[in-house]
Structure formats: structure tokens, C-alpha cells
Sequence to fold (325 residues):
Amino acid sequence: MFPHSLKLKFEWLDKQKSNPLYWNGIVMGLSLLVLFPLLFLDPRMLQSAPIWIKPIKFSVSIAVYSFTLVWILQFLSLQEKTIQKLSWVLTITTFIEIVCIVLQAGRGISSHFNITTPFNGFIFSLMGTSITVFWVAHLLVTIRILRKTDVNKFIKECLMWGLFIASYGMILGFFMTTPRPEQLEEMKQGILNANGGHTFGAPDGGPGILFFGWSTVAGDMRVPHFFGMHAMQFFSVVAWFLGTLSRKDNNISLDSKIPYLRISGLSIFSIIVIMNVQALSGESIFATSKPYLFGYLAAIFFLVVSIVLMMPNFHRKPIAQGVLS
Fold:
């Protein structure tokens, strides 16, 4: 016999199998069983990085996003036709994205910004279209959560902050697709190489950190793009953790923690905006100047203080058993 709490968890997990995003996360996770060996078996490099690094990064990111959204969507009715349709849209668009990335990696060329041939330009346009549709679908999910009135206020605000900051992080990708002045000049001469790039102030492919590849010598929009998108996980963990504690201990008032949650949300959003401005200015986050450094320190200070104030007093009394499904 399973314990009652474990049985509830299995029942919750079983319900999620009707959501295509659940299987999207499974497929992305399984794809790593193929992609990781290729990382060691295929010695090819692209822009100073192993050719299979990008497919691995995107597979992990899509899997994490999918499973996080599956958890968030438990607060909406999966039987709603709109939610089912949005889940399918998010699944299909991310699948198109990863297929294009893997295809181009297999061919030994860049997937993003590559317009060197009509086919490469088509792949890049297809990716741009799919991710735009993905962003709209994500935004519609955010609006659905905003309209919910039967969700705890604190939990709802957690979800809203995560989804909103993630949508901002996603849209930063459009900065990367803007042609640089030198690229526009090449296009005027009929030379089609690239349309946009990750870095600002230097060409793509320069010195960067391990795995992520973020530039150490120029502004890199992948930094705010990454932290913005994955704010979803931070706020989902906060919602799950404090939600669980509040159900175990009735003395924990989630409503009283909303002001601190808002300070956390504003602090994280401020950090992403600073990263955005810094990248556009052509400055690497690994060579941060004093004005940006002061901004980061101030935002991080308020973030840490707000997180500490959100935490309950664990020394007050023992907590009874319970679970958040």
C-alpha cells in the first residue's frame, strides 16, 4: 500500500499525461540521450563551440519550461478547450524550434541568424515565426491566470510574476534578430551572411564562458534572455514551497507575504532590465562597469531582503503533516 500523500502525487501526475506539454518535456529529456553522446563523438565546432551544444541547451530549456508550465496549468482546467489548444500550440512551436536547430547542427551550420542560402533563410524564418506564435500563446496563458479568481492571491501573484518576466525575457530574443549596421551594408551589396546576432559590440563567436557561450568581451542578449525566461522556475518554487508550508501550518498567512513577493518580482525584473540595457550598450556582464554594478547590487539587496522576509519563522512550533498537490 502506498502512503496517502504518495498516492495523491501519483494521481496528480497521472492527470498531467493528458497535457501535450508533459510529453513534450519527456521527449526533450529523452533527446538528451542522443545529443549528449554526439557532443563527444562529433568533434565539429561552430563559432568556437561544439556543434551539439546548442541543441542540448535548447532541449534542456524546453523540457524545464514544459514541466514548469504543466505544474502551473494545474491551477487552470485542462478540460478547457482554450487551455488544451494553447498547450498544443506551445508544444508544436517548441518542437519545430528544436527540429530546426538539430537539423542545422547536423549539417554543421548555424541555425540562428543564418541567411546564407534560401533554405537556411527559410529555416531561420520558420524558427522566428514559430517562436513568435509561441510567445503569443505564452502570453495568452498568462492572461488566463490573471483572470482566475479562485486561486490563492499569493500563489496567483507568484505565477503572474514568473509568467510575466518570462514573457519579457522571451521578447528580448527579437533584439537579437535585428540586423546590425554592418550586416545591412552587406545586404545592400547582395552579400547575405547573417541577420542579427547574440552579441552587441563584437561579432558572434568570440571569447565566451563554458557551455552557455555568453560573451566575455561584448554585450550578450542571451544573458537577460536566459534569466528572464527562467524566472518562471524561481516563482513556481516559491509558490510551491510557501504554499506547501501554509497548508501544513494554518498560522502561516500567505496574504501577508504579498508585499515581499512584489519586492522580489520588481527586483528580479529590474535585474533583467539592467542586463538588457547593458547588453545593448555592448558591455559584457563579466566586465561590468560601476553604474551597472551599483544597479545590480541594489536590486540583489532588495531581492535577498524580500526573500528572507517571505520565509516563515521555522522556530515558532512544529509543523503538522500535509502536502500541496
Q: What stands out?
A: The chain has one domain: 15-310. The first strand starts at residue 45 and ends at 46. Residues 15-310 form one domain.
